[in-house]
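User: Hey, my collaborator sent me this sequence without any context and asked if I could get a structure. I don't really work with proteins. Can you help?
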Amino acid sequence: MDLRAELLKSIWYAFTALDVEKSGKVSKSQLKVLSHNLYTVLCIPHDPVALEEHFRDDDDGPVSSQGYMPYLNKYILDKVEEGAFVKENFDELCWTLTAKKNYKPDRNGNSVVSHQDAFKLWCLFNFLSEDKYPLIMVPDEVEYLLKKICTAMNVELNSCELDDCLSQEPQGQGGLTVWQFLDMVNSGRLLRGIEQEAISMAVEEVYQEVIEDVLKQGYLWKKGQLRRNWSERWFMLKPSALSYYMSEERKEKKGSITLDKHCCVEVLPDRDGKRCMFCVKTSSRTYEMSASDTRQRQEWTLAIQTAIRLQAEGKKSLHKDLKQKRREQREQREQRKAAKEEETQRLKQLQEEKERKLQELELLKEAQRQAEILLQEEEQRRRKQHEEMQRTLEIQLQEAEQARASMQAEMVLKEEEAERQRKRIMELEEMQERLQEALQQEVKARHDEESVRYAQKLKQLMKLKEEQEEYIIKTQLEKQVLKQEMENKNKCLEEAQKQLEEVRVNRLRVDQDVMAAQRKLRQASTNVKHWNVQMNRLMHPIEPGDKRTNMSGGGFAGYAPLMCRRDSSLKLKQKVEDKGSEPVRQSSKENVSNGGSSSSPLPSSDADTMATEASNQ
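Assistant: No problem. I've predicted the 3D structure and written it out in structure-token form, which is a compact way to encode the shape of the chain:
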């Protein structure tokens, strides 16, 4: 802790004491008085111009600590020099301001500590408090300070009583304020049965050790340099020097031994009637001293070695170093505690996570068991469905094969019928040739009488001949197309058989396909029956007709029946073609939609038969 931080702690108490309304602000007039007193006790030259300039009256409102800090740092703390002022006077000024408002001793005079001892305890509290505002002292430092005081009185601190007191005090921000600490000391619970004078001496000793950096003090015998005689002196050891006085009142200082890293202390053997001797060697002189007993010599030598070590390490105060070490230990302890709590929390989370995982695992196992049971039931049900479907498909396949065999038999019959129709076509062609010959003969006979009419009718006959030849050619082409369609239907039949084999593999879709095939088979059978009836109506034996001798209008006798028969034949042919083409188109659509089932060739063969009969007629 540097000098600025120490001074700020005391000034903070003075500033808060001037804040009567506890608003965090102090009037400018009070701050001017406080600043003037600080100039005085810190031995800083007064700067009234800067003081007036900073607190000019253009704003009459009070000033907060943040508003006062710039002036305090620039014009007061930056000018402070260590050793140029008496630190105790500065602390007394701040204590006087804050004690009037906050320190409340027992009005009956039953306080454990006096007002001066309270001031020293206040200084000790400021030294050991944390470097954050508002100032507090953590319980560890409270225990440390009280143990130091009890050790100085050769009594033992009651730790249980201290813990009880600390638990009863409302600790703000993790520690005690100085007023809570003084109230706890004045309550007498910790220092019960001890006289006030002993407490005062112990507080003074601890104050000198901690605040004034007195490592050790007491009477020693010192050997003179010139006269070489032994004189008893009061020695006071600080980290920088070992001073000695005429008496313990320290009114007359006789000398001082400056200590540095080159000094050392050695134990000397007894001589000249003196015992428990030791010496302090500096770079310029050796100082011989004698203690009252061996214990005192050991304490003094250890204390002097500690002072030399502090000088070698460049440290000015032992207790500042010890305080920093204790603070680091507390921080490490808190870090370990936090790490332990974090580890405990993490282990707890891991345990909870583990339990949750185990619960999830149990749920998963239960779900897996349920799934296995459902899977087994589903497998059994599917196996049964598969067996039933396989049996159904086998029956349907047998029925389809029987239908195919019947369809093949019907195809053979249709082919025989087509052969008969071809023979009839040939007979019709021969009849046509004979009719043409008769027509030529009739034309030659009637050429003289009806030359003009004959020429016209000859043209009509020639035209009719061309139409008949075109019709015959068209009939032959349709016959070829029907044959090609029959071959295509046979191929479709083979594809249907392949699809029936694929049905065995596709068990889920075969039922619908077979039912569709059955429906189409029934429809095809219905169509076959229907067309058989139609064919029976249309198919009558065609015999050569007798020539009529009667002539209408004096024309050729066989010409009118021939034209009438031709017109009726053309109408019948057109009607049969219209009726035959409709089943063919329907069969083609069903063949495309159903992948060429076994019932599709039937309409084509019926159409072929009907077309042949129409040609024969």
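In plain terms: The chain has 16 helices and nine strands. You can pass these tokens on to your collaborator as they are.
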